[in-house]
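Budget justification aside, the reviewers requested a transparent look at the raw inputs and outputs of the sequence design task funded under Objective 1. We therefore reproduce one unedited record. The lines immediately below are the structure tokens for a 400-residue chain.
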């Protein structure tokens, strides 16, 4: 019976790696004031610092050339500077929500510009100034548009204008708002943010694998046959003593071109959906040839039963496509065969949030039925029950 492990960011955090959104922002934000790049200077402000110093040796050397490249990007990239100042963002899920927020605000503002600026026809180039009342003095909209350098805003006299490069121009007139240029501007900046993301993991996360203090590996998962991860890191292969190949659903650090980072889907309440496509995960997976096949790698008819293990995954609606695929996969297996979905938890308190997320995605009927039939289980990480589930007999070895 094949065992399939699906890991999220909580899996990396379990090993003390600074992969949380907070650590990402805190460590990068502190680079400007760091005089020398030592272990303590880099990780001291991390929310996970106690775990880091107890897990990894401090004799680590950072790639100075990459750090200088990273610092240059941090100084100029608009998306990073925006996220750096958004203090209410707590997690990578909040981060994705904020991307959607910015896109909706910008593209709805473009439509507003089109309706209000050009309601009387074209304007001569250079005559594009409008009063801030154009947005009913909504300071939030104006601040975001100004921050992303889409408008020019003169606070003293209360006037703003769309920047000239974002107009369609003909015969010396501005004839309309060029939305494609705004999309290109935001997307170019977003690609820069993705490079920052890749450099952070390459510089400050990857070197830690070779500096682990306790060399004994976590062999609990040695019986796993397939591993899929939403992370970008090779933690499973470095920490779990296995040669099973990891399938990176969102790309792998070191290859900036295939990293998947963005919104899960296009909001239902928007008109021009095409403008959102470059920022969606599914577009990036298709465009970057990231491993987007997921469970069709597994020969369903070759085995009698399957066990899925979710570890360190939030089971949030942002990944509902994958979660639905697992549950539907289980539903298609004969009831006479073994079918298991094991949610690994660190404590009983964490079960409630995960259960709420599953109910939100799959609905009461499906979740209740699977728990009654003992198909869906929540199991503590250090429990004998987990070890039993992980060590159930496997029919045959599996390779990719």
């Amino acid at each position: 019976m094949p065992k399939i492990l699906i890991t999220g960011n909580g899996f990396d955090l379990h090993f003390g790696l600074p992969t949380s959104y907070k650590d990402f922002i805190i460590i990068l934000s502190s680079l400007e004031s760091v005089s020398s790049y030592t272990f303590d200077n880099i990780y001291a402000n991390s929310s996970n610092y106690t775990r880091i110093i107890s897990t990894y040796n401090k004799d680590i050397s950072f790639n100075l050339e990459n750090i200088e490249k990273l610092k240059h990007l941090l100084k100029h990239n608009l998306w990073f500077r925006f996220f750096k100042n958004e203090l209410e963002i707590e997690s990578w899920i909040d981060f994705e929500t904020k991307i959607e927020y910015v896109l909706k605000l910008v593209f709805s503002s473009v439509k507003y510009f089109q309706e209000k600026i050009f309601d009387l026809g074209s304007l001569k180039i250079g005559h594009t100034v409008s009063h801030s009342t154009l947005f009913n003095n909504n300071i939030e909209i104006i601040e975001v548009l100004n921050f992303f350098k889409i408008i020019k805003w003169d606070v003293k006299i209360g006037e703003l204008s769309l920047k000239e490069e974002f107009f369609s121009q003909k015969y010396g007139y501005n004839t309309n708002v060029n939305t494609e240029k705004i999309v290109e501007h935001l997307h170019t900046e977003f690609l820069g943010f993705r490079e920052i993301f890749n450099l952070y993991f390459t510089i400050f996360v990857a070197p830690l694998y070779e500096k682990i203090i306790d060399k004994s590996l976590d062999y609990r998962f040695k019986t796993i046959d397939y591993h899929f991860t939403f992370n970008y890191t090779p933690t499973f292969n470095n920490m779990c003593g296995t040669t099973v190949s990891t399938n990176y659903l969102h790309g792998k650090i070191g290859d900036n071109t295939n990293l998947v980072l963005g919104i899960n889907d296009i909001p239902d309440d928007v008109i021009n959906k095409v403008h959102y496509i470059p920022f969606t995960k599914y577009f990036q997976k298709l465009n970057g040839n990231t491993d987007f096949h997921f469970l069709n790698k597994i020969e369903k008819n070759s085995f009698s039963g399957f066990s899925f293990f979710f570890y360190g995954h939030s089971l949030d609606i942002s990944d509902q496509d994958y979660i639905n695929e697992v549950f539907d996969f289980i539903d298609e297996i004969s009831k006479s065969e073994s079918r298991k979905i094991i949610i690994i938890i660190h404590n009983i308190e964490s079960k409630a949030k995960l259960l709420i997320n599953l109910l939100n995605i799959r609905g009461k009927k499906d979740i209740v039925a699977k728990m009654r039939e003992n198909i869906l289980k929540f199991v503590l990480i250090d429990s004998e029950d987990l070890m039993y589930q992980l060590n159930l007999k496997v029919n045959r070895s599996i390779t990719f």
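Confidence is low (pLDDT under 50) at residues 394-400. DSSP finds 15 helices and twelve strands in the chain. Computational costs for records of this kind are itemized in the attached budget.
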